[in-house]
Structures are given as structure tokens and as C-alpha cells.
């Protein structure tokens, strides 16, 4: 049974659910499985390693599904920005129909470039004011991300219910709901709040097609609503992550007198310092860190 909304009509999908971009998780197998099931699968561009690796991943995904899928490009503070324009060019060249974008001012020229070439852009925002800016830049749809979300919830600390109510009141383009949605009840609530669907990330991490270690999946399944923590608050790059020893050590350093800079904690959260089969994974920064 199809649920018809502005999201499903625009993208030609059956279920109004988007698999959000997740670093090291948004790979071909998962994206294809979500699309095959009726939603919109998403490849995470920066997880692929390089623009040419993204091209390879797009082509691999097309061998696994004939349904629509998209690519995520997220623009976050980094010591060495990746070549976003080259990733965007691959999206255009490969005729990927949808791009999920997120992040600050660096996203502006990429959104405009993608729209110029007919790519449908869903821009993820943590505030209505940023959503309005994305619309002026040409975004077709917004993904409104409440404070409940994993990853980067922004710096305004506004919960999803309030944020979605403001979106329904102020936005003139369709939007989907992101942050804390994981099942049919969540989808029903999002539709009731005026959204055209939901964006889900964490829920897709525990499916068979997510190519992450079972220890991580098992830990997530056992976890409760109290098992997350915010890091990078003092650096104004807040991230909600799993509450473990690594995350708690980062928070302790941030709270010490005088605070800290990113260089003071980079060695703690570097992927290279974590054991291969651990459940200590936090939202790892780009590998150039």
C-alpha cells in the first residue's frame, strides 16, 4: 500500500521515508535496500573516499536497484575541506535524481549548481530561518531536523515538535521531519504535524544491509533514550553521539577551566585510535582529522 504525499509524488517512491546520509553507513547495499523497499535510499558522498569512488558507488547501487536513490553532501567545519564541487559534478554527471544537502554557507553554491542541472535538492536544516535561506537558494524541499536527532542538531536546541509546528506555519515549500523518527507511529505523527514524510538515520543502522559491526548494532538495540550525550558543544559544532567512555572524556575536556580547542581532543576521537571491533564509536570526523 502506497502513502501518497508531496515527497512520494516528487520522487516517485512508494513510502514517504528517506534514509538520511550517515558517515561510514550510507553505502550501496543499504541505499539500494531502502529504495527497493519503497523509500529513498541515500549514499553518503564523503564516505566513499573520493569523487571517483562516489561514481563507482553510484554505479554499483544501480546494479542493486532500479528504483530512485540519492546522494548526501554535508558541509561541516573541517581542517581540510573536501572537494565538494567535484562530488557535486559526479552527482550531475551520473544523473542522480536527488541530493540531500546539509550544513552552512559552503552549501550555497553547490545547491545552486545542482538545481541548475535539474537535481532535486532536499536541504536539512535545524532552524526555520536557515530553511528559508535554503529555499531562496533553490532547495526543492526541506528536511527539518529537531534537537532529538543523532549527529548534528545545530545550536538552537529546539525540539522537533516545536520546530515542525513553526515549519508548517512559515514555510512555503514541502518539508520532511527528521530527528527521533524510527517507526510507523513516528511517520503518522510527522504527517499529522504537516510534514510530507520522515528522514530516518539511526533506525537504518541496525538492519542487515548496514555494513557496520554487529557489536555496534547490538549496543544500539539495547540502548535507551538516556544513552546519548552531546559533544563539541563548546566548539559550536554540537553532535549527539552514543554515551561511552570516549564521548564522556571529550565532554570532560570541554568542561575543564578554559575549555579546549579541537586539536586538544582530535586524538581521542580519531578513528585510528579505536579498536576494530569496539562499540566505542562516536560520530567520527572526516579522516583528514
TrEMBL record:
It comes from the Eukaryota. SUPFAM superfamilies: Inosine monophosphate dehydrogenase (IMPDH). CDD domains: NPD_like. Keywords: Dioxygenase, Flavoprotein, FMN, Oxidoreductase. One of its GO terms (molecular function) is dioxygenase activity. InterPro entries: Aldolase_TIM, NMO. Gene3D superfamilies: Aldolase class I. Pfam families: NMO. PANTHER family: 2-NITROPROPANE DIOXYGENASE (PTHR32332), 2-NITROPROPANE DIOXYGENASE-LIKE PROTEIN (PTHR32332:SF20). This is 2-nitropropane dioxygenase. It comes from Exidia glandulosa HHB12029. The lineage of its organism: Eukaryota, Fungi, Dikarya, Basidiomycota, Agaricomycotina.
Amino acid at each position: 500500500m502506497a502513502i501518497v504525499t508531496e515527497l512520494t509524488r516528487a520522487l516517485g517512491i512508494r513510502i514517504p521515508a528517506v534514509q538520511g546520509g550517515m558517515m561510514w553507513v550510507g553505502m550501496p547495499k543499504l541505499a539500494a535496500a531502502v529504495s527497493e523497499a519503497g523509500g529513498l535510499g541515500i549514499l553518503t558522498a564523503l564516505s566513499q573516499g573520493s569523487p571517483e569512488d562516489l561514481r563507482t558507488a553510484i554505479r554499483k547501487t544501480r546494479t542493486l536497484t532500479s528504483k530512485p536513490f540519492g546522494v548526501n553532501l554535508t558541509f561541516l567545519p573541517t581542517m581540510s575541506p573536501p572537494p565538494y564541487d567535484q562530488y557535486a559534478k559526479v552527482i550531475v554527471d551520473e544523473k542522480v535524481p536527488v541530493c540531500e544537502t546539509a550544513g552552512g554557507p559552503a552549501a550555497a553554491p553547490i545547491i545552486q549548481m545542482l538545481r541548475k542541472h535539474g537535481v532535486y535538492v532536499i536541504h536539512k536544516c535545524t532552524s526555520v530561518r536557515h530553511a528559508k535561506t535554503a529555499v531562496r537558494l533553490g532547495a526543492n524541499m526541506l528536511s527539518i531536523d529537531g534537537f532529538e536527532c543523532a549527529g548534528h542538531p545545530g545550536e538552537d536546541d529546539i525540539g522537533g515538535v516545536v520546530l515542525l509546528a513553526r515549519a508548517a506555519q512559515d514555510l512555503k515549500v514541502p518539508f520532511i521531519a527528521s530527528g527521533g523518527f524510527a517507526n510507523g507511529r513516528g511517520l503518522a505523527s510527522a504527517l499529522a504535524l504537516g510534514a510530507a514524510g520522515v528522514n530516518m538515520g539511526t533506525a537504518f543502522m541496525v538492519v542487515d544491509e548496514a555494513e557496520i559491526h554487529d557489536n555496534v548494532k547490538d549496543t544500539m538495540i539495547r540502548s535507551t533514550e538516556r544513552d546519548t550525550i552531546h559533544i563539541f558543544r563548546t566548539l559550536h559544532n554540537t553532535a549527539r553521539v552514543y554515551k561511552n567512555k570516549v564521548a564522556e572524556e571529550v565532554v570532560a575536556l570541554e568542561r575543564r577551566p578554559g575549555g579546549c580547542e579541537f586539536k586538544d581532543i582530535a586524538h581521542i576521537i580519531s578513528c585510528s585510535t579505536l579498536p576494530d571491533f569496539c562499540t566505542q564509536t562516536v560520530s567520527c570526523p572526516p579522516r583528514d582529522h
